[in-house]
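Hello again, I could really use a second opinion on something today. For a while now I've been wondering how a particular protein folds. Please have a think about how the structure follows from the sequence. Here's the protein in full, and shout if anything looks odd to you:

***
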Amino acid sequence: NYPPVIPAGLEYLCGHLQKSNHEAFVLDLCFSRDPLQELINKIDEIKPDIAGISIRHIDTVLYQNNDFFIYEVKEYVEICKKMNLRVILGGSGYSIMPAEILNFTRADYGVYGPGEMALVSLLNDMEKEKSVPEITNGFSFFTEKKYEFARSKVIEYSDYIDNDGIVGFRTQTGCTDNCFFCTEGKKQIIYNTPESVGQEISELKQRGYSHFHLCDSEFNLNINHCINVCKAIIEYAGPVNWTLYMKPEPFSTDMFMWLKKSGATLITLSIDTKTSGTKSFKRLAEFFRLADKEKIKIAIDLSIGYPHEEIQQAKEMINFLSKQPVDTVGVNSFYRVYPGTPLFNAIIKDRSLEKYLINWKPDTDYLFPVFYNLFSVKQVRELIGNNP
């Protein structure tokens, strides 16, 4: 897919593995012309004991031209097992449906959620020949609110940068929201200490990188954390050019001021038509005003068509946004259905919603892509009209 995404999660993972007594080697197959053969060659070369496979996503999430990735993952698992390796799955994609993916690929073990501490613990137990569960919950290893996450340089960035990829970093994992289509909601928040974020950006800047993209689900889960991260970036690295994801609440004047001082240039703001209403419109308008005052661009990710939504609500939101100082508005009305999301729960509760499903069968487990669509492409085009 384009642009390619630098696997920063593997660098955090290896940072913790390198602090343990385990040796880790990363094989990045993003640009490989023959990934299966390259995997075989590398296993022959380094002769590892265990293979860990990171799954960023189950599929592309997009309805148009959807790609399903788990077939390919299954091939990697089969190769590793034929070469007598035990296989551990992990990553943000795996964590969406851990049991289903483990069963489909026939891997040995999986780590759900953050893997930094869980993988080390799992490997320690395997080394001592202790009994280990098929699926380990990575969240259970975090009892404090803030941690310093080590990041190790194990990925070569040049091919990514040459193909318009951007260096990513994170300040936290998890999210307190519960958006109707999202798999990341209602997850425990684990904060990177602001100092470790600042030091990480400084080290990346010393390697020649100055443009960054935030990997958090949403940045503004806690205003104090936001401001402290911005201050740490300035203290350790100086202002850098960075872009980020945010949600409509919370925000403050000080937060926008520090975002600007730290070098933030673009905010992708995720909103849906549930946000509509006079009071919410006033808060959104204030958000846009503060961003515009600091010369920070806004790109809107607008989700319309949640269960039982009236099309008038979508029309009101689009009309409102057309008058605001934002750079772009992307409108989406197709949603990949994943178990555990509010959308999935609504469909299970109200069977009348099944008529809005695409690629659905009564016995589906939702591992293979199923989409929900309330408003047709034609309806959305009519809502947008000729607005550029």
User: Anything to note?
Assistant: The radius of gyration is 22 Å. The mean pLDDT is 94. Residues 128 and 214 are 38 Å apart (CA to CA). The longest strand covers residues 264-272.
